[in-house]
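Slide 14.
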Amino acid sequence: MTGPTTSAPGYREMPAPKALRDIVACLWIRAIDSEEDVRIVPDGCADVVWQRGRGVTIAGPDTDAKIVSCTRDDLLVGIRFLPGAGGAALGLPLDELRNLRVAAADVERAFVVDPDCEPPDVVERFISAAADREADPLVSEAARRIERFDVRTIARELWVSERQLRRRFNSAVGYGPRTLARVLRFHRFVEAVDGGRTDLAALALDSGYADQAHLTRETTRLAGLSPLALIRARTSNGRAARAAT
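Slide 15: predicted structure.
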């Protein structure tokens, strides 16, 4: 394979095969050419990450930032599951992996790949392992609505109790509906920053925050940095992949 499966320095994504787009956000590769610390910020997703020479780790959904120390010549390949799809894809309640990094062999051996494989072979193995896995359709639909409606409204529209919706959310997403809504709103801000925007007041409103002060509080909680500091970090280091080890 070509494109994102090459090992040129940097971070690149490629779309999931059409058959997997209901559960997979993307596949990605990150090649390191110098020592650096990468700040991984919450995005509502779970990743399976292969690292050359070390093997495969599963990164559960985060509720705060994680700092990953990378060394020269590190090479990582990952498959990223959509919010609400990770639990079904990995075959366990995803709240058991919240904020954790665990060996794939301890969770789902189908994703175990030899540490000395080549990136194209890793991608093919991940695609094969994810085939025929299906997300919880109720949670997937609820996740699409969570930023526009409250839990009570969503539960009523989907004909389930609030308790059942929260339980299934925790299992499929890794945390509850309100937390996912916060993370998705923050991720929208991060995507805008990665797109080159720096106008904080406008970014706050466009991302769904009440005002710039609200953006500052949430960014500090979720990323461990102020919005301005986060912008500087991502501008200086390039787009930070969610390539946790």
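Speaker note: Residues 239-245 have pLDDT under 50 and may be disordered.
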